[in-house]
Amino acid sequence: MSGSVDANFMFTLGELFRLIRVYADKEAARYGITRAQWAVLAKVERNEGMKQTELAEQMEVQPITLTRLIDKLCDNGWIERRGDENDRRVNRLYLRKAARPLLAKLAGLRSELTATALEGINPADAHRLLAQLESIKENVRNAIQTPAGETPRKEQRYG
C-alpha cells in the first residue's frame, strides 16, 4: 500500500466495512435473509429474552426500523415476542425452534465470509490482526469517553 497510514487508514477501514456489508448481504440472500435480519437473529441468539428497546440500542438503529425487521422475522417463524411479566409495554425477544437450523447455516456462511476475507493471510497474522483491531477499537472507545478538550495523546507507533 502506498501513502501514509494517516492518509489511508480511515478510508481503507470504511471501504472494507462497506464491502463486507455488500458481500454479506449478497451471500445471506442465498438463505432468504438480509444481513440486518441476520444481525438481529445473532443478537437474540446470544441474549434471549432481551428487550426490543435494548436490542435497538445495541444495534444503533431506530426502534421503528428494528420493529420492521422483527416483524419480518416473526412472520418467518424465526423469533417471537413475549410480553414482560412486570411491564406490559415491554416486548422480550426469543428464538423459535425453526431458527436453529437457519442459524447453523448462517454460522457456516460466517465462516465462509471470514475465510474469503482472510484468504492468503496466515493464521498467526490473522490472529495478530484481530488483536490489533481490538486494540484500535479500545483506543477509539476510550477516546469517546474522554471529556472534550482532554484528548489523551500517545506517541505515534505506526509508520
Explain this structure.
This protein has 159 residues and is mostly helical. The chain has a two-stranded antiparallel sheet with strand order 1-2. The mean pLDDT is 90. 62% of the residues lie in helices and 6% in strands.
What's the CATH architecture name?
A: Orthogonal Bundle
Using only C-alpha atoms, the radius of gyration works out to 19 Å
How many strand units? Answer: 2
Oligomer classification: single chain
Considering DSSP H and I runs of 4 or more, what fraction of the residues is helical? Answer: 55-70%
Approximately how much beta-strand content do the residues carry?
5-15%
Number of helices: 6
CATH domain class name: Mainly Alpha
- Tell me the CATH topology: Arc Repressor Mutant, subunit A
Biggest sheet statistics: 2 strands, antiparallel
Secondary-structure blueprint:
Elements: H1 5-28, H2 35-46, H3 52-59, H4 63-75, E1 79-83, E2 91-95, H5 99-117, H6 123-145
Antiparallel strand pairs: 1-2
Helix pairs in contact: 1-5, 2-4
Brief summary:
With 159 residues, this protein is mainly α.
Task: Describe the structure using short key phrases.
159 residues; 6% strand; 6 helices; Arc Repressor Mutant, subunit A; 2 strands; two-stranded antiparallel ribbon
